Amino acid sequence: MRGRRLLRHLFSDQWSVRRAFPPAALRGIRDTIAAQEKRHGGELRFAVEASLPLLQLWRGLDARARALDLFSQLRVWDTEHNSGVLIYLLLADKRVEIVADRGIHNKVGDTAWETICGEMQRAFAEGRFEHGANFGVVAISDLLASHFPPTGARRNELPNEPVVL
Known about the structure:
By secondary structure, the chain is an alpha/beta fold. Helix content is about 55%, strand content about 15%.
């Protein structure tokens, strides 16, 4: 299994990301994030990575650990109401991970995130990458809207632009 995973990561590159998420798709995801954030007091980030570096693979890093690392690096945890959510896609492993800050996670729990990840992974398996990403953004926004409704003037605390690593 380790050898297969290594090969998948070696043959996944930036072209893999561009095929799955051409510039128009990334703009569409950005626009969906911007529109959805008007519905709630949370913040969303979308990050996609073709593969992990060889050293990280050798050490056994998985998609969840990488998502947690990016949650910190991208400062998704640093929102006023602890309501930031990261959607992370590792293309080589075909894995989606959602990492939510404690403010929203304590209200929603693991089952909701796992359900959304499952739906996104099904769309990605069918080659519908933009659809899967936008589905995730909207589904997470539905949860955020029910627990963190918008209040007064809204300040965008995190960039809406998808991160391609």
